[in-house]
Amino acid sequence: MWRVESRVEVSGISEVARLAKVSPSTVSYALSGKRPISEATKQRISAAIDELGYQPHAGARALASQRTRTLALVVPLRSGIDLNVMMQFAAGVLTRARDHDHDVLVLTDRDETGLARVGRGRMVDGLVVMDVESADPRIQVLAQLRQPSVLIGVPDDPMGLSCVDFDFAAAARLAVTELDGRTRAGAPLALVASPPAVYERGTSFALRLRGAFVEACHQRGREAIVVPCEPTPASGRAAVAALLEATDQPGGVLIHNELAAPGACPAAREAGMASVCIEPESLTDGPAPGGDRLVIPISAQAIGAAAVDMLMDQVEDGGVAGVQLMAPRLTR
Predict the structure, then answer these.
(1) How is residue 314 annotated by DSSP?
(2) N or C: lower Cβ tally within 10 Å for the chain?
(3) What's the pLDDT tens digit per position in 10-21?
(4) DSSP letter string over 70-122?
């Protein structure tokens, strides 16, 4: 039988106070920073802590420094999201937070409950919030917290909060410009888009992309067809089939649905339609569904890292809030 032995630290504030020849309340004040303590007394308390191996409670250390060395990452688990893509953004947050000597507390609540709890309880130094809606109820709560927040996404009214995201509107315009030059004049252009649930809750990136796509098509005298698509290859192929039935002039298609793309891309190629995919940068390194294709990559990890940099700028230096959008580029 294996036996695990552990050493339990029994020294506490009373032992520290006895060795430092001060009262327990003085030790408590030195740890919390609630009252001024002379430098000589602080040094005696520090020496006693070192000698006893006392580990102050994390809450006391946080009070003393006014820092928790922890950030919150809010990743709501909702229908219609691609969890693999969300984790790429999260990886950027986690990696850059470590560069800033911070840990990350991940919250998966769908509403504002969790972020209100950790914010008002002063459990974190700041918050990064993902899957932002155009009229997001969490924003009002975030705006009232003493900690700064950065949104990965751009709502209609950020209420003074910082935002960072991929420029989906510019990506849609870039894609339409490319498709316009590759298809017959006047032929309709289509968008194989995010799942219906994403639109129903008003997710910011999906609405920005759709709006810019429709506007860019109309500016070029083309009909814009938008097909929300469930996140499966079969749904992607079915979406392209529906487009072919809806018009006798198949033009080009913009695909922004990572899980549907492996079905939509080959179907578009078989139908002789030009296509452009908007997808995470990591997917462009693997085999292309349907062969060679045009891609507008999203650097998810870079966006997550940028969110942390913006947040730490406010945590450490009181930086001014702003909006940062990553410019799109077209690649093969």
Answers:
(1) H
(2) N
(3) 347 888 888 899
(4) EEEEE----TT--HHHHHHHHHHHHHHHHHTT-EEEEE--SSSHHHHHHHHTT
